[in-house]
TrEMBL record, chains A, B, C:
GO terms classed as biological process: thiamine biosynthetic process; thiamine diphosphate biosynthetic process
Homology family: Belongs to the Thz kinase family.
Record carries keyword ATP-binding: yes
Enzyme type, top EC level: transferase
Reaction equation(s) it catalyzes: 5-(2-hydroxyethyl)-4-methylthiazole + ATP = 4-methyl-5-(2-phosphooxyethyl)-thiazole + ADP + H(+)
NCBIfam families per UniProt: PRK09355.1
Gene: thiM
Biological role: Catalyzes the phosphorylation of the hydroxyl group of 4-methyl-5-beta-hydroxyethylthiazole (THZ).
Protein name per the record: Hydroxyethylthiazole kinase
Keyword Zinc: no
Lineage, highest ranks first: Bacteria, Bacillati, Actinomycetota, Actinomycetes, Micrococcales
GO molecular function: ATP binding; hydroxyethylthiazole kinase activity; magnesium ion binding
Record organism: Leifsonia aquatica
Length: 256, 256, 256
């Protein structure tokens, strides 16, 4: 079943009003950009990712992001702590799983704890679904549509939403599927373009739940808002550096 | 007693001439932005924060910043090492203390070692003074003026300066108080806006001491320079992304 | 013997076509900027730096960067693992060695494993060659030309290339030397300006080897491309913040 989504600015406006607190246990490369994206979009980032604090904070956060990009030992402990404590929605971003053993084992362990949303590129989703060997780092080697079956199977197995990023994003709950076109190739030239989307997804799901919007629609709306901002930013940019700055500007006006 | 400050560009020019070496043991989210802010303002950043090196470096640094935003175990050891070794001024930024147990205990331990300056938002200052429960992450829930009493008490207890950031910043040594208005709301939309100020404060205190400027005035000058740059940057920005870039540009011209 | 280099855009175009996978075990301050520089230049960054994964990834990466800026314990283990596993070229950036004991010992240990390229400022190169006491943090206290003898001696000892960054960069294999002028002072006002160059060097050496270009020329080409982009970026910038954004833009067009 194919679904369409309501006007994204409406949910984005609600997000701004509620300023959801999004706890991020994310990779070291993109933590700054992710926090700035969350601030721009209207959420409140909190990168609380050490043992002894991650669980405490997860109990008050509106949503939690678990991103496996640089899973140092201390952070892995904190991730388990946060997911165990969280009663709020949480997003799993299985960065570069497949070949790399530490994160792949961790992703499978976390998958069993039923993430609200799993977000990744086609290679990562196929790898987590057991249908592929993974990509080379964060590159999306596989095509989004080719991962549609794996995404749906993974959604049914996890009981949550699976979102696959690419030229056209695909979001599925295992029975219904939404496709979000748009965005811009420049977003793939900024490190953390996909990782920060995971945090935005967390913010929208938290907002959606408080407004009676189902998770599938909230995730798709996050993707749509993100893609629209990227398109506008690209129109004002002269390359990936100015694009990144403009992208934050555009995320800050979307939905106003 | 209320104090005014001398023309900020003069001390900033002195800072540029001396290029104070500021060692930062700061959080992972803002280390890049903090280093860029220090470079822009004319200081020399050095993020030396591992055990076995932090103490060695603290003995040659002009000032030290201790920021508790992401206090991993190895960094906590290095923080203790740096503070014990430092004979130079050091700044404590008790990010998000109150509810989170690891950093709150560490902040109290470090407070006993008498930081030259404590910098934070109203929630954090009240929490460190024992007058509040802390905020939610890095958000300033409390109002600056409401934290004035706690700030003064904390300054008297630590024997140093306490600076509270907000719409109007409040800086006190426990008897005299300086208020620094200005700045721009966009600074709160860039992650590390407050954290990087802590590093700038360290640079100004180091510079001030070499020029016979007392710490209270040096801290207030740092806030004034920072706020003025934010105002000019906001005038040239179209949102938080372009603001961050322009803010660095403006910090680099201030005081020339 | 003094050498000249072929037209840099040609090798840069080849780099873009091959998208070399560059594994970075780099410091926490500059990992984001380094990844963005690699993406802009046309390479694929992968910051895989934890034990248990670093070696696995080094076997598939096109080149590896080892940067000693913030060498936490876990990363030090991963560095040894990556270098031992890598059969591809690897670059050593001995950030701030000399006084700081942990990184200095590690640099000497890694030097014995014969890095393909050693890149640093004059102080660092002199310190690694045993001819100086090191600088103060990442500052280049020594002059590039004064480090020429130390660089050549270090190249002969390591069997690789040594590149010294400064107003005029000096690249040597111990017998031939290439000097690359240009660049812009603003590059020294952006944290990671030198660190990210190490990653670009890695990308160019990987590309050069596949095209029959010798390492000395590939390293010099990387420096030339980097400097040219900095010059163009500086012309469009109003300070270090806008420079950093423009620099990424310019790296993305170089060689097209």
């Amino acid at each position: 079943m194919s679904r369409t989504i309501v006007e994204p600015p409406r949910l984005h406006a609600a997000l701004r009003q509620s300023t959801p607190l999004v706890q991020c246990l994310t990779n070291a490369v993109v933590s700054n950009f992710t926090a700035n994206v969350l601030l721009a979009v209207g959420a409140a980032p909190a990168m609380v990712d050490i043992p002894g604090e991650a669980g405490t904070f997860a109990r008050v956060a509106g949503a939690v992001l678990i991103n496996l990009g640089t899973p140092r030992e201390e952070q892995r402990v904190a991730m388990r702590e946060a997911v165990s404590a969280a009663s709020t929605p949480w997003v799993l971003d299985p960065v570069a799983i497949g070949v790399l053993s530490v994160r792949t084992a961790l992703a499978e362990e976390l998958l069993a704890l039923r993430p609200t949303v799993i977000r990744g590129n086609a290679s990562e989703i196929r790898a987590l679904a057991g249908a592929g060997a993974g990509g080379r780092g964060v590159d999306a080697v596989d095509d989004v549509e080719s991962a549609g079956g794996a995404a749906a199977a993974l959604a049914r197995r996890s009981g949550g939403i699976v979102a696959v990023s690419g030229a056209v994003d695909l979001i599925t709950d295992g029975s219904s599927t939404v496709r979000v076109p748009g965005g811009d190739e420049l977003l793939t030239r900024v490190t953390g373009g996909g990782c920060a989307l995971g945090a935005v997804v967390a913010a929208f799901v938290a907002t959606g739940r408080a407004r009676g919007v189902d998770d599938l629609e909230a995730v798709a709306t996050a993707h749509a808002v993100y893609s629209a901002a990227a398109e506008r930013a690209a129109a004002a940019a002269s390359g990936p550096g100015t694009f990144a700055a403009r992208f934050l500007d555009e995320l800050a006006v979307t939905g106003r």
